[in-house]
């Protein structure tokens, strides 16, 4: 993969893992996130936790903060572990994205301050294949003329699109 193929935002990687319908709605500019109390809470947590650390963002990636340890360590702060798998892929995407910018990346850390948990994330060769499939999957979903049908998921009740999908 090259940087041209790494054109998606980290949040799109999260939504691909969480819900393909959500990915489509968000990517087509149908945004309900600003109405969501949960999103506001997540933003508040980002802004108030580790606030003295350096962050990084460009048009695709928005890294909560980074440190260095024989290379860059990518840190992401999250509200809840409910979507942990999706968070892991977001961090892996960031790690791979930065590596493609010739940045030496050591590993990633997911922070769940409310649960007092941290999780280390590594990027393996197998992950590269899996990430390629995810990015191709995102491309395919976005080429659909209509959103994928609603699938009842355990996190629908906490989703910013809940009213849109069930209203
Ligand atoms: S409410 Fe459920 S189906 Fe609708 S976008 Fe959210 S997670 Fe997906």
From TrEMBL:
InterPro entries attached to this UniProt entry: CRISPR-assoc_prot_Cas4, Dna2/Cas4_DUF83, PDDEXK-like_dom_sf
Cofactor note: Mg(2+) or Mn(2+) required for ssDNA cleavage activity.
Keywords: Antiviral defense, Exonuclease, Hydrolase, Iron, Iron-sulfur, Manganese, Metal-binding, Nuclease
GO terms, molecular function: exonuclease activity; iron-sulfur cluster binding; metal ion binding
Example GO BP: defense response to virus
Cofactors required: iron-sulfur cluster; Mg(2+); Mn(2+)
Statement: the UniProt record of this protein carries the keyword Hydrolase: yes
Uppermost EC category: hydrolase
Ranges where the DUF83 domain occurs: 10-166
Signal peptide: none
The EC number(s) this enzyme carries: 3.1.12.1
Function: CRISPR (clustered regularly interspaced short palindromic repeat) is an adaptive immune system that provides protection against mobile genetic elements (viruses, transposable elements and conjugative plasmids). CRISPR clusters contain sequences complementary to antecedent mobile elements and target invading nucleic acids. CRISPR clusters are transcribed and processed into CRISPR RNA (crRNA).
Annotated family: Belongs to the CRISPR-associated exonuclease Cas4 family.
Name of the protein this chain belongs to: CRISPR-associated exonuclease Cas4
Source organism of the structure: Thermocrinis minervae
